[in-house]
Amino acid sequence: MKKPLVHIIILNWNGKEDTIECINSVKKIDYPNYKIILVDNGSTDNSVKVFKKKYPSIKIIKNKENLGYAEGNNVGIRYALKNKADYVLILNNDTVVDKHFLTELVKVAESDDEIGIVGPKVYNYGTNKIQFLGIKNLFWNLVLYRKVVGRNKEDKGQFDYFTDVDFVAGCSTLIKSKVMRKVGLFDKELFLYCEDVDFFIRAKKKGYQLKVAPDSHIWHKGSATSKKVSGFVRYYIARNNFIFVKRYFNLIQNSLFIAKYIFIKTPIISAYLLIKEKDFKAFKDYLRGIFAGINYLFTGKIREY
By three-state DSSP, how is residue 265 classified? Predict the structure, then answer.
């Protein structure tokens, strides 16, 4: 029986070394029916020229500018949906995959029509320590207290039962095409961060389940691209947290979030940026993100960076 067609979307922005390592690992997988869609998000490091020479058979889409993580991936998703993809796999360029990873993801996804999104077991790069399995109860875990099951623990199979989740790994997310067509794409206004969680909530509201495939393994370096632009990233993390809470949680939850963010989280992050990192620009951008988030709470308008 023919396997479903999976379009693997890899987004690159000035990270050709990571992207090459990722693609080389994907090309070794045992899943027989996939295509790689490489989307370059306005890189300035000669990435596209290198990719065209090294991978002449891979579909490369070049964006004229950095459209952000959300819309950059949307470009690849639109191409996949127009070209008969049964599944779309969003795969961060700073990952390395096990040869069975896609086979196991598809196996779980195909096991139940109500399963719309599947994520792998994610390890810290080059180790057997778990980086991410999934999260349950998005409000308490993502907004007030982030607790990822198994974080930094050696994998001995003790978390293989942890399969039903509210949030799978955004660095490697298998999504049925019909889910994309019903739910829509990533929200491009979020630009960077929280776009995956926003999509997951919308999918769950449409009745789709999220699952972890414990036998699907990848290794993730973690924020390899975003570390290059610290202040830029701080802005979007702060701003989008407020947007996310405003959209999906009630007044009491909003109040708890604001109190915790302003009186606990902000002093800690500010001290870290000013004292340890000595990064005044990142500190200013972080504060700008908070003000942009508070502005959204009252006006519903999203400010750009």
Answer: helix
What's the CATH code of the domain at 13? 3.90.550.10
Tell whether 196 and 260 lie within a shared domain. Answer: no
* pLDDT > 70? residue 226: no
The pLDDT score that the predictor gives to residue 147 is 66
Distances in Å between the alpha carbon of 39 and those of 16, 69, 135, 259? 12, 11, 28, 39
**Per-residue model confidence (pLDDT) at position 144:** 61
Among candidate residues 174, 203, 220, the one where a domain is terminated: 220
Helices 230-248 and 251-260 sit at what angle, rounded to 10 degrees? Answer: 150
- State which residues form the domain around 171: 6-220
DSSP one-letter code for 67: -
- My answer on whether 203 and 269 are in the same domain is no
Give residue 266's pLDDT band: very low, low, confident or very high (50, 70, 90): very high
Alpha-carbon distances of 295 from 242, 262, 288, 290, rounded to whole Å: 9, 14, 10, 8
SS3 of residue 52 by DSSP = helix
CA distance 4 to 115: 15
Task: Judge if 234 and 211 occupy the same domain.
Answer: no
Contact yes or no for 116/196 (Cβ under 8 A): no
Does residue 1 lie within any of the structural domains? no
In a domain, 56, yes or no: yes
- The whole-model pTM stands at 0.93
Phi, psi values for residue 19, rounded to 5°: -60, -40
40-64: burial string, b at 16+ Cβ within 10 Å, e else: bbbbeeebbeebeeebeebebbbbe
| Amino acid symbol at 96 | V
Q: Which of 164, 188, 220 is the last residue in one of the domains?
A: 220
Highest mean pLDDT among 160-164, 261-265, 292-296: 292-296
User: Which amino acid is located at 24 in the chain?
Assistant: N
Residue bearing tokens 């519903």: 300
Q: Is residue 100 part of a domain?
A: yes
Res 224 pLDDT > 70 = no
